[in-house]
Write a structure and sequence with these properties.
Layout (H helix, E strand, L loop, with lengths): L2 E8 L4 H10 L4 E6 L19 E8 L4 H15 L9 E6 L4 H8 L3 E3 L3 E5 L10 E5 L11 H12 L6 E5 L5 H8 L4 E5 L3 H13 L7 E4 L9 E7 L2 H6 L1 H6 L1 E13 L3 H8 L3 E9 L2 E8 L1
Parallel strand pairs: 6-7, 8-9, 8-11, 9-10, 11-12
Antiparallel strand pairs: 1-3, 1-4, 2-3, 5-6, 12-14, 13-14
Length: 298
């Protein structure tokens, strides 16, 4: 099925008005995009910040009366902007009929991390049957190995001895890091996430790798047992990592390891300062302006 798409370039304070206009016109979905290269990495909780140059996009079915909608938007636009501002630019295009799921699957290939570990899409054959192969279907949860922070964590896990370790994967997403730890020798993983969908994806991927259900347990944060682990992994954002420092300190044994990522290199010092009381910082490793930090519990 083909789709029609209308794009409107607006200021952030105009976005909501034009979103309502598109929804009133019968669009199936509205999205906001950055019109320039100014990413917002870590918004404040409870906020939905927009870029100074924002593209509001409305998606319509192929049968929609595009000309009538464009005329309606152009007539209504002057009422949604200040009198001293020009009306936003409005454009329209036809999106080709495409199997978007299949296109995404075709782009996702097996990837090697370190010497032993491969992460393989569940729909592809493994390139090296003798390697440690993690079969993954991320579903609706974050975590495929393509992001530098995930890659940094996987490379570290491949480089250390995880045999007989109890591990906590805090912010588990697809379960990629916790399951990798199990495949590399860990005996038990506690997977934690604020998103129930992530916990479902993690358990699905556990089964996909033919691992026993009793090797990995999933929890929402308020339900996490107080039992301390040998290693805690957290690939989330800097703000939550700093806020969770007391929690993480209580969940790691003395002499246990901490693996943190999800950080920009500019955030390293702030995070190190937050953790230095309870941890000895072992290493800061960078990849494409992102970093991982490893530390030992005092």
């Amino acid at each position: 099925m083909s789709w029609l798409q209308i794009k409107i370039a607006v200021k952030p304070e105009q976005a909501e008005g034009f979103e309502d206009l598109l929804l009133e016109a019968g669009c199936a979905a509205v999205t906001f995009q950055d019109a320039a290269d100014n990413p917002i990495f870590e918004p404040d909780l409870g906020t939905t910040p927009l870029w100074q140059s924002t593209i509001v996009t409305g998606l319509f079915s192929a049968e929609h009366d595009l000309e009538t909608t464009l005329q309606h938007i152009r007539e209504a636009a002057p009422k949604l902007v200040d009198s001293n501002q020009p009306c936003p630019e409005v454009s329209a295009e036809i999106l080709e009929d495409k199997d978007w799921e299949r296109a995404w699957m075709d782009m996702y290939h097996p990837m090697q991390f370190g010497k032993r570990l491969w992460v393989c899409p569940s729909w592809r054959e493994v390139p090296d049957p003798s390697a440690v192969n993690l079969m993954l279907d991320p579903g609706l949860a974050f975590g495929t190995g393509t992001h530098p922070t995930t890659a940094l964590c996987l490379e570290w896990l491949d480089s250390v001895d995880l045999k007989n370790l109890e591990v906590i994967d805090y912010g588990c997403g697809s379960g990629i890091l916790g399951i990798a730890a199990l495949l590399l020798g860990a005996t038990e993983v506690t997977a934690v996430d604020i998103d129930p969908q992530a916990l479902i994806a993690t358990r699905d991927n556990l089964q996909r790798n033919q691992l026993s259900d009793d090797l990995l347990t999933t929890y929402l944060p308020p339900q996490v047992p107080s039992k301390a682990a040998d290693l805690l992994i957290a690939n989330i954002l800097a703000g939550p990592l700093i806020q969770l420092q007391p929690t993480f300190s209580s969940l790691i044994k003395s002499g246990g390891k901490l693996l943190l990522s999800g950080l920009l290199d500019t955030q390293a010092e702030e995070l190190k300062e937050a953790y230095q009381t309870d941890f000895i910082i072992d290493e800061v490793k960078a990849k494409d302006n992102w970093i991982r930090i490893t530390a030992t519990r005092r």
